[in-house]
């Protein structure tokens, strides 16, 4: 990847990511933000950065229905590139919409207690 953006709402996670980027001499290619994922999507869109994400990995805490909210926000604010993908993890029994206005579900794989989902930009 040319550039990676890490988002986490836990300060200890952001500190670890930042330290790893420095250790690997990748701090110019990666940025870590202490922020809620939904809020980040809205802020990124509102700033009109003329950028979009080619791949988004989503792994919010289970049992809080956060993946649904994050996918709805990503759909509404459309920050996925034309050839982009979203790879998401959630609790295997979480009820999710298969398709959205801007992306569609192409893979759904049950892996023990987790469900791996891959969406593709329409």
Question: Descriptors for this entry?
Answer:
6 strands, alpha/beta, single chain, 122 residues, two-stranded parallel sheet
Topology:
Layout: E1 4-8, H1 11-23, E2 30-34, H2 37-46, E3 53-58, H3 66-77, E4 80-91, E5 103-111, E6 114-121
Parallel strand pairs: 1-2, 3-4
Antiparallel strand pairs: 4-6, 5-6
Helix pairs in contact: 2-3
Overview of the molecule:
The chain is an alpha/beta fold and 122 residues long. The protein is 29% helix and 37% strand. The protein is built from three helices and six strands, in the order βαβαβαβββ. The chain has a four-stranded mixed sheet with strand order 3-4-6-5, covered by helices on one side. The protein is globular. The two termini are 22 Å apart.
């Amino acid at each position: 990847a040319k550039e990676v953006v890490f988002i986490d709402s836990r300060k200890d996670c952001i500190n670890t990511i930042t330290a790893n980027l420095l250790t690997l001499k990748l701090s110019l290619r990666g940025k870590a933000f202490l922020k809620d994922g939904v809020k980040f999507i809205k802020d990124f869109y509102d700033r009109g950065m003329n950028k979009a994400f080619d791949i988004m990995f989503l792994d919010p805490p289970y049992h809080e229905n956060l993946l649904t909210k994050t996918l709805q926000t990503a759909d509404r604010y459309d920050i996925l590139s034309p050839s982009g993908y979203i790879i998401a993890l959630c609790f295997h029994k979480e009820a999710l919409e298969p398709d959205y206005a801007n992306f569609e579900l192409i893979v759904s794989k049950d892996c023990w207690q987790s469900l791996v989902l891959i969406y593709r930009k329409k």
